[in-house]
Amino acid sequence: MELETPSAEQQLNDIKHNLAMINQKIAEACTRAGRDPSTVRLLPVTKTVPAERLRIAYAAGCHEMGENKVQEAREKSEALSDLDIKWCVIGHLQTNKVKYIARFAHEFQALDSLKVAAELDKRLQAAGRGMDVYVQVNSSGEASKFGLPPEEVENFVKQLPNYSALQIKGLMTLAIFSPHLDRVRECFVRMRNLQERLRQSMPAGLSFDELSMGMSGDFELAIEEGATVVRVGQAIFGKRPLPDSHYWPGFG
Ligand SMILES: *Cc1c(COP(=O)(O)O)cnc(C)c1O
To answer: Whose CA is nearest to atom 15 of ligand 1?
Structure first.
């Protein structure tokens, strides 16, 4: 039996309701951690959500959208170019795709190689613009995850002032996918400790104020451990039709 597609009005109400629930949980996690909720940014993750539904999300208040695949992000940014959306690329990037994101993205959260940094800087300089960038860290040690091992981050970021179009904002990670919350929390604690170390040893001009960590299943934990950006998809838009292993090769 085919499920009927909900009306646009129903979709708008659903998304607004989900956003309100998430903001409530963010506020509660902040209270537990003694933090001000205005220090946490909710980045809606829109991968696999069709452009027409994103128009409704925009009307519900989503003016930033996180995508993990360049091609999909590019197509949506073109289809929705009449809206004032800030596109954030949150997935691993191959060097040959860098030229595309230099055109439409406002932020790139998955930097983990100097080759990509150099190419992105070159493309941005040519376009006369800058971009906010996060360094992706593999906080779980799983081979399937992208990102730098924590112990390599310090040397890596020392090279970044060479690329003046990249505005380095902080660190990004995906925690381990595990039902054991203590193991998930360990990943977030590792990130907070790394951020602390970087703050003490960084060259002038670099700051690491932002920590992008936490998704639908673990954003409250991430906030308790210091997340300033939470990337939330399914809790806003509903379950994706295929398991995560489809979208993240090697996962699941
Ligand atoms: C899909 C994705 C998310 C959001 O995951 P949800 O389970 O939908 O909240 C966060 N970060 C990255 C890098 C993603 O690819």
So the answer is: 68
| Mean pLDDT taken over the chain | 94
Q: Is the Cα torsion angle 209, 212, 213, 214 positive or negative in sign?
A: positive
The runs of H, that is alpha helices, within the chain are: 8-33, 51-59, 70-79, 98-104, 114-127, 150-158, 181-201, 219-224, 234-237, 244-247
| Nearest ligand 1 atom to alpha carbon 244 | 1
232: helix, coil or strand? strand
- Let me know if 186 is exposed, middle or buried by CB neighbors in 10 A (0-12, 13-18, 19+): middle
Digit-coded pLDDT (tens) for 98-115:
999 999 999 999 999 999
> For residue range 25-56, what is the model confidence (pLDDT) as tens digits?
999 999 999 999 999 999 999 999 999 999 99
Ligand 1 centroid distance, CA of 46 (Å): 9
Predicted confidence band at 232 (pLDDT cuts at 50, 70, 90)? Answer: very high
Instruction: Please tell me the distance from the alpha carbon of residue 79 to that of residue 88, in angstroms, as a whole number.
Output: 16
CA distance 239 to 234: 5
* Domains in the chain: ranges and CATH: 8-237 (3.20.20.10)
Distance from the alpha carbon of residue 82 to the mean position of ligand 1, in angstroms: 25
